[in-house]
Backbone:
């Protein structure tokens, strides 16, 4: 099986898995307990906090452990909303192709009287900093824009966006779930006030993540209970998962440049090969994108059929976010960049990593080309397109 769906989840690294097993076996104490077993567990949690903070350029006190990206997004957004409301500021800025953990939270806040402005991401999947600055108002309390898109992989000009927010005194949050562990991030250099991350996107375990919140931002609690995480996230810490998350992030940080060069070269070959298929298009900017992300649309086919036939050929891929895989609607991300509904239905997301070989890439190109041709051969939509009853979009 060729695994090409790393944006959905990554395989745990040996280093992370070994740390997780060892911690579970040897340091199973409750970190809130005062006796030796508990204090040893607490030391592991605090060492992980220090390691993660160092990798992203933060202070250890600015890291709160969570269950993953969705929880971190919710806590960041709701915190900024409450802080803004206390000052009479109830305007939030985001964009049209955020993860649903952000969009659904914003929708919930709209029902509570907040006003939300969603910026256009344009056909290349990139936000124009000038448009962000023009959208900021006196009552803007938060800007939340993802670092890299989970479907099409486009990387936003985060440093510029952060500078704009800093200049206007507006809290800037970024959902960096797809970016952390894959690109270099320094929260101070990038003017980030809050940032969400999830371990299973960078070879760590599922159910573990963290939220960076700059000093001075008093986080609101989503979960009430004990005083864990300085009272900002109740519940006994998952010590083995936290330790494994730190190990995975450190391992990735140490090889980011080397891995990026290898994966980017294979990604570009993959995109080149798939664009040779007639009436296909790359989704998102060709250069400002994550190293391993290739997202394309093929006119005249259905993405779900494409995935099933690729699975028969031993290729694991997706048509978009794993969080919306049960939806029959086309991807909101592809609609946001202007893809027509019919075209958006024929999408394919391939997300590779350093374990993907050049031989794998050629096999994927060959297989996708064959499957697209096969699906088109009995597609009534394709028949209408080639006979002129419908006009090609791509």
Residues:
């Amino acid at each position: 099986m060729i695994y090409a769906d790393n944006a959905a989840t990554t395989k745990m690294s040996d280093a992370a898995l070994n740390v997780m097993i060892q911690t579970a076996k040897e340091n199973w104490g409750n970190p809130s307990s005062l006796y030796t077993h508990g204090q040893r567990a607490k030391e592991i949690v605090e060492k992980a906090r220090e390691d993660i903070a160092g990798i992203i350029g933060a202070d250890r006190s600015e890291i709160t452990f969570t269950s993953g990206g969705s929880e971190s997004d919710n806590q960041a957004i709701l915190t900024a909303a409450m802080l803004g409301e206390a000052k009479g500021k109830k305007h939030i800025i985001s964009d049209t192709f955020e993860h649903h953990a952000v969009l659904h939270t914003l929708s919930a806040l709209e029902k509570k009287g907040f006003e939300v402005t969603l910026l256009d991401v344009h056909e290349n999947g990139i936000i124009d900093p000038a448009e962000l600055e023009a959208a900021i108002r006196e009552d803007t309390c938060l800007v939340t824009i993802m670092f890299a898109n989970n479907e099409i992989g486009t990387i936003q000009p985060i440093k510029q966006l952060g500078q704009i927010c800093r200049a206007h005194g507006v809290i800037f949050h970024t959902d960096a779930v797809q970016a952390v562990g894959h690109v270099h991030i320094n929260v101070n250099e990038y003017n980030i006030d809050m940032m969400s991350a999830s371990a299973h996107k960078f070879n760590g375990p599922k159910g573990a993540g963290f939220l960076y919140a700059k000093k001075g931002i008093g986080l609101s609690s989503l979960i009430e209970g004990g005083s864990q995480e300085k009272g900002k996230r109740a519940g006994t810490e998952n010590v083995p998962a936290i330790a494994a998350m730190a190990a995975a992030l450190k391992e990735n940080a140490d090889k980011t440049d080397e891995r990026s060069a290898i994966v980017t070269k294979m990604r570009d070959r993959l995109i080149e090969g798939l664009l040779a298929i007639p009436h296909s298009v790359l989704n998102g900017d060709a250069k400002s994108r994550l190293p391993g992300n290739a997202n394309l649309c093929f006119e005249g086919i259905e993405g779900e059929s494409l995935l099933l036939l690729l699975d028969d050929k031993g290729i694991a891929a997706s048509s978009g976010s794993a969080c919306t895989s049960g939806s029959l609607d086309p991807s909101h991300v592809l609609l946001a960049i202007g893809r027509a509904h019919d075209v958006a239905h024929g999408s394919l997301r391939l997300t590779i990593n350093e374990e993907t070989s050049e031989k794998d890439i050629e096999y994927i190109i060959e297989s996708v080309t064959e499957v697209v041709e096969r699906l088109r051969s009995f597609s009534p939509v394709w028949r209408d397109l080639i006979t002129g009853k419908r006009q090609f979009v791509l």
